[in-house]
Amino acid sequence: MKPLLIAPSILSADFSRLGEEIRAVDEAGADWIHLDVMDGHFVPNITFGPPIVAAVRGHSKKVFDCHLMIEPCDPYLEAFAKAGCDIITVHAEATTHLDRSLQAIRALGKKAGVSLNPSTPESVIEYVLDRLDLILLMTVNPGFGGQKFIHPVVEKVRRVKRMIGDRDIHIEIDGGVTPETAPLVVEAGADVLVAGSAVFKGGTPDHYAANMTAIRRS
Ligand code: DX5
Ligand code: ZN
């Protein structure tokens, strides 16, 4: 079994002090840093692009886990790789040629992930499993932090866990993760938990550490 990893989503951080906030969650025990890239097209919100990723890269040595909610994604993969992303995750719904996108990410020397919206069946990744390092299952409709966990996805986690067999692929959950919902997805097979509002609530480094401990203990 893989150890449980916590990846705070900086979407819930104070953007005016982003570098400082990343350092704070790093020191508070984050395993990875989750960066939500939104384009106002694939999802109804806009966040940041490669220049911001590059600007904050120096603030933590932890894995930069980049969740691209952008369509198209292929033209920007190289820029995100150069900006310092370690894992690049694209949405299956945002690329016509998923196999090609995943090959492109690995060709850039990065770990490749695919994300599925809550309504997307796991069958879309059946033939790309050997190109994957990570499967990101959305437990909210992507676009905003602080939304409610969508429970039917727990069954999808179980199915994906069965599907990957003994392959070395992370199952990551994103959206509405709290000490209440975390045990449901971990029990179903998830090993990486993204949490935005549940980690950053309180607004100080002491809160961040306590919030992550609460999720781990749950
Ligand atoms: C949603 C993002 C998530 C989001 C999670 O589109 O991909 O990473 O920030 O936020 P919480 O944990 O608040 O649901
Ligand atoms: Zn995300």
TrEMBL record:
Its cofactor is Zn(2+); Fe(2+); a divalent metal cation; Co(2+). Binds 1 divalent metal cation per subunit. GO terms for molecular function: D-ribulose-phosphate 3-epimerase activity; metal ion binding. GO terms for cellular component: cytoplasm. The active site is at D36, D174. Substrate binds at S9, H67, G143, F144, G145, G146, D174, G175, G176, G196, S197. Catalyzes the reversible epimerization of D-ribulose 5-phosphate to D-xylulose 5-phosphate. This is Ribulose-phosphate 3-epimerase. It comes from Fulvimarina endophytica. The gene is rpe.
